[in-house]
Design goal:
It is a single chain. This protein has one domain. The chain has 108 residues and is an all-alpha fold. The chain contains four helices and no strands. One of its GO terms (cellular component) is plasma membrane.
């Protein structure tokens, strides 16, 4: 069963979004998720290790932003806690991978 966005708007199906700003937040989150999917190509096929590290870091940052948008749109402050923890893990992961590549000699 396929439902298009115009069919949802025309039939006035209640999506649980009480404010137009919530719909904008959800739309932005969907766009960011699509960009993370596109970045996964760079993670897999990046010609250099630096390309892969930057792509993984970008996906992690996108995940943090999506969690923050969903926290605001769905009025779930618990998502912000998860976003903060994920941001810290993303930072530590970037440092660890950078240190590993420097020790291996793959820099520049």
């Amino acid at each position: 069963m396929s439902i298009s966005l115009t069919a949802i708007i025309q039939s006035n199906i209640d999506l649980g979004l009480n404010d137009p700003i919530e719909a904008v937040f959800i739309g932005a989150a969907v766009i960011l998720i699509l960009s993370a999917v596109i970045l996964s190509y760079r993670i897999v096929s990046g010609p250099t290790m630096q390309d892969r590290v930057i792509a993984v870091n970008s996906v992690g940052t996108t995940t943090v932003v999506v969690l923050a948008l969903l926290a605001a749109a769905l009025d779930r402050p618990g998502f912000l806690d998860i976003a903060l923890v994920y941001a810290m893990l993303n930072f530590l992961m970037s440092i660890a991978i950078s240190k590993f590549t420097v020790e291996r000699g793959d820099v520049l």
